[in-house]
Amino acid sequence: MNKPFSSIDILGIPFANATRNQFLDQLQGRIEHHQNTFVVTANPEIVMYARKDPAYRKLILTADFISPDGIGIVKASQTLKTPLPERVTGYDIFTHLLNWANQNKKSVYFVGAKPQVIKQLKLKLAQDFPNLQLTGAHDGYFKSDTEIVNVIEKQQPDIVFVATGFPNQEKFIAHNRHLTKGLWMGVGGSFDVFVGAVKRAPKWWQVHHLEWFYRLITDPRRLKRQLIIPQFMWKIHQLKK
Ligand code: UDP
């Protein structure tokens, strides 16, 4: 396939060398042309996970585009003297595509998050995005995915957002993406943030690139997961020319 962007390698993961707007334009164009697309938004945690799980790495390398989900990846690219233009976060792409889908009457399927969050998501979509065609929304705590997969295949949504957290969301997408001609993207905890079940850090923390630290101190369960970040930074430091 003809790749529109060059890629920048960070510890074996090729990131799309694109600005946020170039990235969004590309995705929207592909949706318009019914081109099947798999997007991964990868943070340092995902990069490190892929290093120790070759099967997961192989799977995310089948994505059409991998975007730098957060400042950690952008900083690493600068340290390695192959700078990426800016971060292109999952949540940002998610909300922009929702707006665009609403304006262009596109159809969307949502899977992931807790049942209560899905309930709120449906209400918010009906209120704020009345032109978006909701083809279905299912929570992410299912035993069998048969029902979900059948609806997606029947409804042929333009976009499928999967918010079950990594690595499961990427596995689900890689396994099922052939069912539609649309875009499939893993968006982690985005449904929670979107409905306000989880708050993003206040602006000050975001502006100072400390959102990760805010999340850490407000949700200490993340501590174990975030301990991987210094390891990521150390690996990058070792590669520094
Ligand atoms: N989740 C889910 N099914 C599961 C486990 C988790 O749908 O079996 C959801 C969870 O409710 C949350 C999201 O997956 O909405 C993962 O959020 P997290 O903040 O961990 O994502 P990340 O940090 O990877 O963006």
Topology at a glance:
Elements (H helix, E strand, L loop, with lengths): L6 E4 L2 E4 L3 H13 L4 E6 L1 H9 L1 H7 L4 E4 L2 H9 L10 H14 L3 E6 L2 H14 L4 E6 L7 H10 L3 E5 L4 H9 L6 E4 L3 H6 L7 H5 L3 H8 L4 H4 L1 H12 L2
Parallel strand pairs: 3-4, 3-8, 5-6, 5-7, 7-8
Antiparallel strand pairs: 1-2
Bound molecules: uridine-5'-diphosphate.
Q: Any overview of this molecule?
A:
Catalyzes the conversion of GlcNAc-PP-undecaprenol into ManNAc-GlcNAc-PP-undecaprenol, the first committed lipid intermediate in the de novo synthesis of teichoic acid. It is a single chain. This protein has helices at 20-32, 44-52, 54-60, 71-79, 90-103, 115-128, 146-155, 168-176, 190-195, 203-207, 211-218, 223-226, 228-239; strands at residues 7-10, 13-16, 37-42, 65-68, 107-112, 133-138, 159-163, 183-186. The protein is an alpha/beta fold and 241 residues long. It has one domain: 3-Layer(aba) Sandwich (Rossmann fold). The chain has a six-stranded parallel sheet, with helices on both faces. A two-stranded antiparallel sheet has the order 1-2. Helix 2 crosses helix 3 and helix 2 packs across helix 13 (228-239). The longest helix has 14 residues, at 90-103. The model has no long low-confidence stretch (mean pLDDT 95). The site of uridine-5'-diphosphate has 13 residues, from helix 9.
Keywords summarizing the entry:
single chain, 241 residues, alpha/beta, Rossmann fold, 6-stranded parallel beta sheet, two-stranded antiparallel ribbon, 13 helices, 8 strands, 50% helix, globular, binds uridine-5'-diphosphate
